[in-house]
Design brief:
Elements lengths: L19 H17 L6 H28 L11 H4 L1 H16 L1 H4 L3 H5 L5 H33 L5 H31 L4 H28 L3 H7 L4 H13 L11 H32 L1
Helix pairs in contact: 1-7, 2-4, 2-7, 4-7, 4-8, 4-9, 7-8, 7-12, 8-9, 8-11, 8-12, 9-10, 11-12
């Protein structure tokens, strides 16, 4: 028979200050935000987010340069229409980065390790959604800020009016970030493979936009402009644009807009429902993964 020996290797109970749940939540948020831009990861992980960020900045810089030469206010891109104009770039950013935040832990089966700490599935989900929304907000708000600062430096007239429109556009960026980030993380969380996640997110944006364009075209052919406006609720970019136009006083960037303030309220309610529903779905998804 073999004998067993217990060795004292110096382990001692930790009796100091514990940082707790709030610190863990903040750490997860910072980690996911860095991951969205490839920070702390290999160089190839930084290429796509920073390339897309540079592409987002180019039209703003060019618009400011043209205005500085021509002094024509119309040469500056409207703040509220910037995201809609570059929605393809934003959609690609969501599609490429959402799987990084939402599916890596699922792919490597490490979700139970997170839940072994004083953090639950809801904290885990909120940290990821907040990081994705922050990354998207930075992607959209930075070029809008370049437009605004460039206008001030080149002494654009009616600076007070531009400030109001700039702040309204920032509010729109917040809404864009919440809605697009919620959709992207939910879709990406249901496929551990990153390539499938990218394709699925792109497909959601493309199919919804195509469906809305077709419905709006058919409605306008029948002169049913109200239906054409309400159809915009079913495409993410149109949905947020309705809120910007009806509740924030922006100019429309879409083919048709839901009528009246009621249209804006309905669109805002749908945005809130999307964010809440995505949180609930992700909570269930990661809770189930944490138990497996």
């Amino acid at each position: 028979m073999s004998t067993s020996t217990i060795h004292d290797i110096g382990y001692r109970h930790y009796e100091g200050h514990r940082l707790g749940r709030a610190y863990v939540l903040r750490s997860m948020y910072v980690h996911n935000l860095r991951a969205a831009f490839g920070l702390g990861r290999p160089a190839r992980a930084k290429v796509m987010p920073f390339l897309l960020g540079a592409i987002m900045l180019l039209p703003a810089a060019g618009s400011v340069a043209v205005y500085a030469i021509s002094k024509e206010p119309d040469t500056l891109i409207r703040y509220s229409s910037y995201a809609a104009t570059l929605q393809v770039i934003i959609a690609i950013f969501v599609a490429t980065q959402a799987p990084v935040l939402a599916s890596r832990e699922l792919r490597f089966h490490v979700v139970p390790l997170y839940f072994s700490r004083p953090v639950g599935p809801l904290d885990f989900v909120l940290a990821k959604q907040a990081a994705m929304a922050t990354a998207l907000f930075a992607l959209m708000a930075l070029p809008i800020t370049v437009l605004y600062v460039g206008g001030l430096v080149t002494r654009i007239p009616d600076s007070g009016g531009h400030l109001v429109r700039y702040l309204a556009a920032l509010a729109g960026c917040v809404l864009f970030a919440l809605v697009l980030g919620a959709i992207g993380t939910v879709v990406a969380a249901f496929t551990p493979r990153r390539g499938f996640g990218v394709a699925a997110v792109i497909a959601i944006f493309m199919l919804s936009s195509t469906f809305v364009v077709i419905v709006q075209g058919l409605a306008e052919m029948r002169t049913d402009f109200a239906l054409a406006g309400w159809a915009g609720l079913f495409a993410p970019f149109n949905l947020v644009d309705i809120v910007q136009v009806r509740l924030l006083g922006a100019e429309s960037s879409s083919v048709a807009i839901a009528p009246g303030v009621a249209g804006g309220v309905v669109a805002l309610g749908l945005c809130a429902a999307l964010v809440v529903a995505s949180t609930a779905v992700l909570h269930r998804r990661f809770r189930k993964a944490g138990l497996s």
